[in-house]
Design goal:
Length: 450
């Protein structure tokens, strides 16, 4: 009955108002990014295209979409338009960071570890994945306090340590419960994409409570139960070698983050790249950057890149220890400066990380997908970059985000690409706002319809 009534009602409207169409009364698109160079590796697009958005979704990616079909048109000529970037190694959350993996046993609750999730939008990032800041006992707090309130999309790797990274319990085997970890992943499968293991017993002698592979083995046990990948932060030792990790322990689809950290034998004494990397890659092991405050050394990255090894995904490992020197576009710029082509870098910052976390609907500008878009500026000039060993590399290119669109909304636009020149602003711009009145018309997160 309900269906037939709806059909009759719809027919009645069509018959009663035959000459009124939506095309004449309202724009076909909410937002049109016009004239940009689109790089969308998932759809093999690397050319000038217009990108239209309607109701939060990508509506069209075509040449010459007429400007009068959109409520808001933004000129992005001379800029690159890419899928919103995906940073699969980020840290959100609250509380004090123990930072005790450098000085085992010494708990230093000096710094909160997590940084604001929405800060990622400043670098064109529309999806971040928290890399195990929370575990089974602390995830709900992280979800309610940060994930549910963020504008940027937040997913997470769950720490195998129930207490997560922030309570000083990362070395306790009692905290590593694979069944509890898997049950938590199952419960929050819409958010949690994998398991994280990190910082486990990096220097002190082994004892009954601390055995070489305990954290890795328990993370794998949880991941097998929950059918998700593991992300590994790892410190090799004589009884726990790097080759054993990437050639034996890691499963196809598992992710080795911090690949260019100082502790990994990426480059052998003869200057050649460690053949174990290619062997591991061939068996499905995934390599991720995870730059951070201590995990990116040019002495590993540059010779590796020259010999053809580029990590599958680019990520920041942003936390309070490094947010002033690292952003997603900064890390991408380092690879650009090393000579990696831009389209390849975009691939490793969009479609690749989406695949690694089994979210193929992300990292693409496909029509119908959520409109997450980055507008990037490729600048030429004299720039220099730093690594975690207090060393510098000079370069002549730099990538910066000019605008970020998240779910169809302009969420970052510091240069006012989408805004009207102040002298041409609408009348209310020149009035003093009443208390409580929303700021018109050019808040970056609204579409000013001028
Ligand atoms: Zn991290």
């Amino acid at each position: 009955m309900k269906i037939s009534f709806a059909i009759i009602a719809a027919l009645a409207i069509v018959v009663a108002f035959p000459v009124i169409t939506f095309a004449q009364t309202s724009p076909r698109y909410d937002l049109l990014l016009k004239g940009g160079h689109v790089i969308d590796p998932a759809n093999h697009i690397d050319d000038v295209r217009d990108v239209a958005v309607f109701q939060g979704k990508i509506a069209a990616v075509e040449k010459d979409i007429p400007a009068d079909q959109a409520g808001k048109v933004v000129d992005v000529s001379k800029l690159y338009v890419t899928p919103g970037l995906i940073d699969i190694h980020y840290h959100i959350g609250h509380g004090g960071a123990p930072l005790d993996w450098f000085t085992p046993g010494a708990r230093v609750h000096a710094l909160p570890l997590g940084i604001p999730a929405d800060m990622a939008l400043q670098a064109g990032v529309t999806t971040i994945v928290d890399a195990g800041t929370a575990g089974a006992d602390t995830f709900l707090q992280e979800k309610e306090e940060v994930i549910d309130r963020s504008r940027v999309r937040v997913l997470a790797f769950l720490n195998i340590v129930s207490n997560g990274m922030q309570g000083g319990l990362e070395q306790s085997l009692d905290e590593m419960d694979p069944k509890l970890c898997a049950a938590t992943i199952t419960r929050y499968r819409d958010i949690i994409v994998g398991v994280k293991t990190a910082h486990y017993w990096t220097a002190l002698p082994w004892d009954a409570e601390h055995i070489p592979w305990a954290a890795v083995d328990r993370a794998i046990e949880c991941a097998t139960l929950a059918n998700v990948p593991v992300m590994y932060d790892f410190w090799p030792r004589p009884d726990r070698t790097y080759e054993d990790l990437i050639l034996k322990k890691m499963r196809p689809g598992d992710i080795h983050t911090h690949v260019f950290a100082q502790q990994f034998p990426i480059i052998l004494p003869d200057g050649k790249i460690n053949p174990a990397l290619a062997e591991a890659h061939a068996r499905g092991v995934i390599f991720d950057v995870g730059h951070g405050s201590g995990s990116f050394w040019f002495r590993n990255a540059v010779p590796a890149q020259k010999q053809g090894f580029i990590p599958d995904s680019i990520s920041t490992d942003l936390h309070t220890g490094n947010f002033n020197v690292v952003s997603m576009t900064d890390v991408m710029s380092k690879f650009l400066a090393m000579g990696v082509p831009l389209d390849d870098i975009i691939r490793r910052s969009t479609v690749n990380p989406a695949a690694e976390i089994h979210r193929p609907e992300l990292g693409t500008l496909s029509v119908g997908k959520e409109a997450d878009i980055a507008v990037l500026d490729l600048m030429k000039g004299h720039f220099s970059y730093i690594d975690c060993g207090v060393a510098r590399m000079d370069g002549n290119v730099k990538l910066e985000a000019r605008m970020t669109v998240r779910a169809g909304r302009i969420s970052y636009d510091p240069g006012g690409l989408s805004m009207v020149e102040w002298e041409k602003a609408r009348p209310q711009y020149f009035n003093v706002l009443d208390k409580g009145e929303a700021l018109p018309p050019a808040r970056a997160d609204d579409f000013p319809r001028d």
